[in-house]
């Protein structure tokens, strides 16, 4: 079960806390798939632990995982990413961006299970 879906307790409580939080319905032709890209200004790249983008991600597409040496790193699960942009608002330094899938060479720490 994925947290924050409307049918979960967490999703229900989030809707109660912010009833105006609704994503607009897409109109027009479907856009190119978007993918999260984390730039070099990310605090995690500077060895400063920041979990704000991961905490903002309702689908858990962005996660913080331990790495060698006790340093935390971001892990992206592209199959869970909906391109909603919630993680962008959570980034205090603006390092997170969404770009069309074809314009990004290599995402940051792609989840090995995402193939």
UniProtKB/TrEMBL annotation:
The keyword Nucleotide-binding does not apply. Keywords: Iron, Iron-sulfur, Metal-binding, Plasmid. The keyword Iron-sulfur applies. This is 4Fe-4S dicluster domain-containing protein. InterPro entries: 4Fe4S_Fe-S-bd, 4Fe4S_Fe_S_CS. Residues 1-33 are annotated as: Disordered. Signal peptide: none annotated. Gene3D superfamilies: 3.30.70.20. GO terms for molecular function: iron-sulfur cluster binding; metal ion binding. Pfam families: Fer4_7. It comes from Sphaerotilus sulfidivorans. Residues 72-101 form the 4Fe-4S ferredoxin-type domain. Residues 1-25 have a biased composition (Basic and acidic residues).
């Amino acid at each position: 079960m994925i947290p924050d879906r409307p049918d979960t307790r967490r999703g229900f409580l989030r809707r109660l806390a912010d009833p105006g939080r609704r994503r607009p319905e897409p109109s027009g032709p479907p856009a190119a798939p978007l993918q999260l890209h984390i730039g070099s200004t990310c605090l995690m790249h500077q060895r400063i632990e920041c979990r704000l983008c991961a905490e903002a991600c309702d689908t858990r597409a962005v996660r913080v995982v331990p790495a060698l040496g006790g340093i935390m790193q971001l892990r992206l699960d592209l199959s869970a990413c909906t391109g909603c942009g919630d993680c962008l608002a959570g980034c205090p330094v603006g390092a997170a961006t969404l770009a069309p899938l074809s314009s990004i060479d290599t995402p940051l720490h792609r989840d090995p299970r995402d193939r």
